[in-house]
Design goal:
about 10% helix; 3-stranded antiparallel beta sheet; Jelly Rolls
């Protein structure tokens, strides 16, 4: 017998808020200080309002091997300068763990990279699944026009989060609008990591 029986819940669209959740996280513009390339546009926008960029509805699970944390991530539409609204992005504290995202609504991109600078980008659209392998940092970007990017996510409950590495270095690629369409550009503040120290990356909580 177990005190933790199976359960189910609905994800109500178009809003995407799950009928069951344990924690509601709200990330505002101030939480992404230093992550947007156009600092002048960032400062001007923040001076007007600390805009809500994205929300996470968590189903909390005990941090034990074999269990799965899951929930719904909602990235709102908008831009800072020509760069789309995005999540902070993170590695997992336990670096050798993976994550799966299933897009329920909206259009987006999943930006990913490894501690040694390999990178990849996958498109997100309703019905599309993206698998983030172990050792890959990941960030969700909403490239839609006026529509939330809503995704269901699942990852090992003992994986943890490392936001600090991304806060200090950023991602190698940025997603910006060019001629009305999303485009990838190099991040001017990104630098090649030290390959020896990057093998030990992944510690700490954001």
């Amino acid at each position: 017998m177990t005190d933790d029986p199976p359960f189910g819940f609905d994800v109500r669209l178009p809003g995407g808020i799950p009928a069951r959740y344990d924690n509601h996280i709200q990330r505002r513009l101030s939480a992404l200080r230093g992550q947007y390339s156009d600092q002048q546009a960032y400062d001007a926008m923040l001076a007007l309002e600390d805009t809500l960029l994205y929300e996470v509805y968590e189903i909390r699970r005990p941090p034990h091997g074999g269990d799965l944390s899951h929930g719904v991530s909602i990235v709102h539409p908008g831009k800072v300068g020509d760069e789309y609204f995005m999540t902070k992005g993170h590695y997992h504290a336990v670096l050798d763990t993976a994550e799966v995202y299933y897009c329920l609504r909206g259009m987006g991109m999943m930006v990913m990279e490894t501690p040694v600078g390999d990178w990849a980008v996958e498109e997100m659209a309703p019905g599309r699944v993206v698998f983030v392998p172990p050792r890959w940092a990941h960030r969700s970007v909403n490239v839609g026009r006026g529509e939330d990017l809503v995704m269901l996510y699942v990852y090992p409950a003992d994986a943890g989060h490392d936001y600090g590495t991304i806060e200090s270095r950023g991602f190698r690629k940025l997603v910006v609008e060019r001629d009305g369409k999303p485009a990838l550009i190099d991040n001017p503040r990104w630098a090649w990591p030290d390959r020896r120290s990057s093998q030990q990356a992944g510690g700490g909580q954001g």
